Fold each of these.
Amino acid sequence: MSSPDKSPIYTIIVAHDPDLVIGDSAAQDLPWHYPEDLKHFKRTTMGQPLLMGRITFESIGGKPLPNRPCYILTSGKLEGVRCFSDHRQAMDYFYTSRYQRVFVAGGAGVYKTMLPHADEMIITEIKKRYEGDVRFPEYRHDIGTVWKETDRTEHPDFVIKTYIRDQGDEV
Ligand SMILES: NC(=O)c1ccc[n+]([C@@H]2O[C@H](COP(=O)([O-])OP(=O)(O)OC[C@H]3O[C@@H](n4cnc5c(N)ncnc54)[C@H](OP(=O)(O)O)[C@@H]3O)[C@@H](O)[C@H]2O)c1
């Protein structure tokens, strides 16, 4: 099969609390358990490739999620999964791949490096505050300029918002 030589769409998918907390480094896990948000993650990413950091990969059991090829950023090597030593190497690989979209699934360092390259963000805003020391990078000052909200779904405990990078008015 010929490769398209075209950058895929990079979609960040994340859940954060009001202080941008996404995780806890001691527990290496999510600070909360919202089954409806996990279902949303599963539904949204099903069949699509995921790019994530080594710790996040270990936190999901150290093996790819069903029907979602996983690509890992790490300075090391992991058995049975494609690893990249930096995001540029990963992006070069995806450029020549058949993927039209890649989901960026965390954690903090991966979000931070990939945020400037992201075309879209699907963000679950958890309403309650949680303890945790792993945070999503601050982006909220860019809403309305860099990021345009295109969709919003309300749940009792959280709101799921979709943002696309605003390309400005095209002529
Ligand atoms: N709420 C959410 O939506 C969400 C999503 C994902 C994760 N989380 C949570 O976040 C926490 C894990 O995140 P984390 O930030 O601590 O770790 P992480 O980003 O998952 O993994 C960090 C490791 O990934 C590698 N890495 C990261 N960025 C890299 C880069 N640009 N280039 C090369 N390698 C890179 C390094 O691996 P080596 O040390 O092997 O070199 C680094 O030590 C957990 O608590 C997890 O549950 C939350």
Amino acid sequence: MNTLHYKQFRILLVDDETDNLENLLFALGLTFDLITAASGAEALDIMAREKIAVIITDQRMPNMTGSELLGRVKESFPDTVRILITAYADIDAAVSAINTGDVYRYIGKDRAIDEIEAYIKQAIEHYHMKAENIRLYALLAESRKIGAIGALAAGVAHEINTPTHYIGENLRFLLESFQNVEEVLKRYEQLKNAVSQGGEPLAALLSDLDNFNEQIEIGYLREEIPSALKQSLEGNQRVADIVRAMKLFCHPGLDEMVPTYLNQGIMSTITLSRNEWKYVADLITQLDPHLPPVNCLPGEINQVILNIIVNAAHAIGEKIETNPEHKGEITIRTLRNEDNVEIRIGDNGQGIPPAIQSRVFDHFFTTKDVGKGTGQGLAIAHSVIVEKHHGAITFETSPGQGTTFIIQLPFLPPEAADQAIA
Ligand SMILES: Nc1ncnc2c1ncn2[C@@H]1O[C@H](COP(=O)(O)OP(=O)(O)OP(=O)(O)O)[C@@H](O)[C@H]1O
Ligand SMILES: [Mg+2]
């Protein structure tokens, strides 16, 4: 904090009595970057135009009092640190402004200048720390987004490896079987030649063919070859699905809100996260095929779904630890409400105990061991859904029974739905 350059932060002083302002300017002008306004209205005008780190206002002003002004500043410019200057007679107004959270602190009118200077420095430090926090959270969210694919990579590799493995096995089987089929074809060729030329004894050739067919178990091959081909095609489809899911999950370049049908992104996220839940739970989807599109950042919404699915798998994992035979269930539903789209992700895991229910959306709140959780999943989910998308995220939980997270996103007016992507 010592290296903070206080002059880099703009301070707005508001007072209708210009004498007061001039005194402060004179005393503090060298230490801070000060500008002044003579009324609440003028102050709001200035704030609409430029970034103000700290606003310091007198309480007694005509038209708009200091605390009224700060209430409005809190609404429109919540990052600005707000200080009220009051005479002793107005202390009640100051206390109530502090209690409603409109004011960071108040300064009595009779305070010495070096005390005021110290308060302003503190306010700047507070502003700077908040700004740094916001910047760091954004960085964290970004690095987690990038890290998600990395974190899923081992699971995804495993998911691709399984079909690739049996496609390989099947192809080897087909190659070997074809050598036998080739032999059978050769023998038919001989038989055909013998029949058309009428020379060689047919009986010997026929019995040779029968023997060979028996030896190579032709009946078995005729059943197994088509099924090996079918299985390989399915495996290939599975790999193609995973690759497509990865592309959809990342949505590279989509940093802007786009009209999106959510079901497909949800399916991709389920595909990619399969390795995270398949050992502890079955996953059931009930996706409304007529879900209207929502305006969203698809990559970020997928990230939120992923965080909640992983949490659900963990909660079930904890619950069935003692009885691994007994798999849990994750249910993902989408549905349409009157003016929003709802995604419900439910699990029958251990539930969230009442004592921590109010904290799960806090940054860095976790009940998990180091390496398993960092307490960012739901904090990021909250910021993505509430701040970036003006939606809502809540949960219903019953300790020991399970939890359902509910996300609501406002949907688009029908005319905008035409350009929606999947
Ligand atoms: N579905 C759930 N069932 C039970 N508890 C949950 C569930 N989802 C979240 N929690 C609780 O909320 C806490 C915070 O969740 P959050 O996703 O933010 O962090 P985390 O899962 O601990 O770590 P991270 O997501 O960063 O890896 C969890 O540690 C857990 O105690
Ligand atoms: Mg989590």
